[in-house]
Specification:
84% of the residues lie in helices and 0% in strands. The protein is an all-alpha fold and 188 residues long. The chain has one domain (3-142). Helix 2 runs parallel beside helix 4 (80-91), helix 2 (28-55) packs parallel to helix 6 and helix 4 packs antiparallel against helix 5 (100-112). The longest helix is centred in the C-terminal third of the chain and has 70 residues, at 118-187. The chain is rod-shaped, with a radius of gyration of 32 Å. The chain starts with a helix and ends with a helix.
């Protein structure tokens, strides 16, 4: 899944979260609820914007943003948005800091903490699923590479056997030719 498809999927998720709960703005309690829900969705929109901008940064700038995020996280370890951003930096395919294991661990901790609102939880779940799927694909790729190497080694061994047999066949043909020539000389 490339980053453009990933961004489209995340935007669709945000829009779907916004469409799920339609409220009547005529009631003050529902208006407050709507504002709270909009605020929660703003986090997701902010994170999607971060993912999009971070993916397009130069490698040196990515390292700088990574260091700044780590510094901010050290100062405020309870900030969920910073944790999610850090997990994104580890999970994104275009990131210089890419580390699927760290991304999965961070995302799993966030999901198990039960401190996320539904919109953030949906985004983190999606990122976790993406990181997990990516890890599975990498493992499958490694296994396929090992199989290919094994097949290549078998092929090379068979190729050497074939050359050895071909050389023996040529030697036998030479012996037969020599014997045939000797028989014709003796016959004359």
């Amino acid at each position: 899944m490339n980053i453009r498809n990933f961004t489209i999927l995340l935007c669709s998720l945000v829009l779907a979260c916004g469409c799920i709960n339609k409220t009547d703005m005529s009631k003050p309690a529902q208006a407050k609820s709507y504002k709270a829900m909009a605020s929660k969705q703003d986090h997701v929109i902010e994170l999607i914007a971060f993912i999009d901008s971070y993916s397009n940064l130069a490698p040196e700038t990515q390292k700088k943003v990574f260091a700044e995020t780590n510094q901010a996280l050290a100062e405020n370890s309870k900030d969920l948005i910073l944790h999610i951003k850090l997990a994104c930096m580890y999970a994104l395919p275009s990131s210089r800091m890419r580390d699927n294991v760290k991304a999965q661990n961070l995302l799993q901790d966030l999901l198990q903490g039960n401190t996320l609102n539904p919109a953030d939880s949906s985004l983190v779940s999606l990122l976790y699923e993406y990181a997990s799927d990516n890890a599975k694909q990498l493992q499958k790729s490694r296994e396929d590479t090992k199989k290919l190497d094994s097949i290549q080694q078998k092929y090379e061994a068979l190729e050497q056997k074939n050359k050895a047999l071909e050389q023996k066949l040529n030697e036998l043909k030479n012996i037969e030719k020599t014997m045939s020539e000797r028989d014709t000389k003796l016959g004359n």
